[in-house]
Amino acid sequence: MSSIKKIDQLTERDGLPKHLCELLDKYPRDTWTNDTLNGNWVGFWLGRHSVFREICSSIKHAIHELLDRKISHQNFMQQYIQLMNMMLHNLESHHMVEDNYIFPKFYEKNEKFRYGLELLENDHHLIHQSIDALVAEGNNLISSFNEKKHIDYKLIVGDYSKVNESYNKLLIAHLCDEEDLLIPLVSEYGEEYFGLGH
Ligand SMILES: [Fe+2]
Ligand SMILES: [Fe+2]
Fold first, then answer.
1. Ligand 2 center from residue 32 Cα (angstroms)
2. Does the model's pTM come out above 0.90?
3. Can you give the residue ranges of every domain in the chain?
4. Burial zone of 149 (CB within 10 Å; 0-12 exposed, 13-18 middle, 19+ buried)
5. Which residues are within 8 A (CB) of 74 and not within 5 positions of it... i.e. 6 or more apart?
6. What ligand is nearest to the CA atom of residue 123?
7. What's the pLDDT at 2?
8. 175 near 49, Cβ under 8 Å?
9. CATH homologous superfamily for the domain 32-194
């Protein structure tokens, strides 16, 4: 794997690097056809991305409800534990399938965008590092609630919310860039060309 330039790291970049946008310029998001979006593989894959976006927004919603005192700590913890477990379990398998099965198929067929695939694989490592920080902060939050410490809950929930925001930002940016790289490739060549969608 070639090394990823600092400027192209998920934490630094704003969208795909320009030299990887040749096909995206030809097939911008608003031109993606239903035929492509509902393809056997693309439809399933985008469905997984929707699940991650929904979990992110549900966790964010629960944090706001807690900060606004619309739900109890217990209610928040129940929702949080369930949503985070769902996120961790699904994201790990999603990334494993992409790294070991999906990306190699694109890598083999398209030399021009290999750096983009390496970039996406590198994103997965950065996202997992960010999850580790998120889980540690979440555990702090839960133990503070469980121990009923006399502390300012608004402050610790606010701290958690900040870590959650930076994780969300990375994950959503990655999902978006991944779609911007792979969907134009499928638009140009079709799923079957890459051995997908059977
Ligand atoms: Fe990914
Ligand atoms: Fe993905």
1. 17
2. yes
3. 32-194
4. exposed
5. 145
6. 1
7. 57
8. yes
9. nmb1532 protein domain like (1.20.120.520)
Tokens representing residue 197 in the block: 């969608």
- Residue 113 Cα to ligand 1 middle (Å): 15
For residue 47, report the distance from its CA to the centre of ligand 2, in Å: 10
User: For residue 117, how far is the Cα from the chain centroid?
Assistant: 15
Average pLDDT over residues 135-145: 90
Q: What is the pLDDT of residue 48?
A: 97
Confidence category of residue 78, pLDDT binned at 50, 70, 90: very high
Instruction: Say how many Å lie between the CA of residue 127 and the centre of ligand 2.
Output: 12
Ligand 1 center–CA 101 separation, angstroms: 12
Q: How close is the Cα of 106 to the center of ligand 2, in Å?
A: 14
Question: Percentage of residues in the chain with pLDDT exceeding 90?
Answer: 85
Neighbour tally for 144: CB within 10 Å: 17
Residue 168 structure tokens: 């969300």
What is the spatial distance between Cα 138 and Cα 182, in angstroms, rounded to a whole number?
33
Distance of CA 56 from the midpoint of ligand 2 (Å): 14
Query: What is the pLDDT, as a whole number, of residue 145?
Result: 85
Cα(19) to ligand 2 centroid in Å equals 21
DSSP run (H or E) holding 142 = helix 114-146
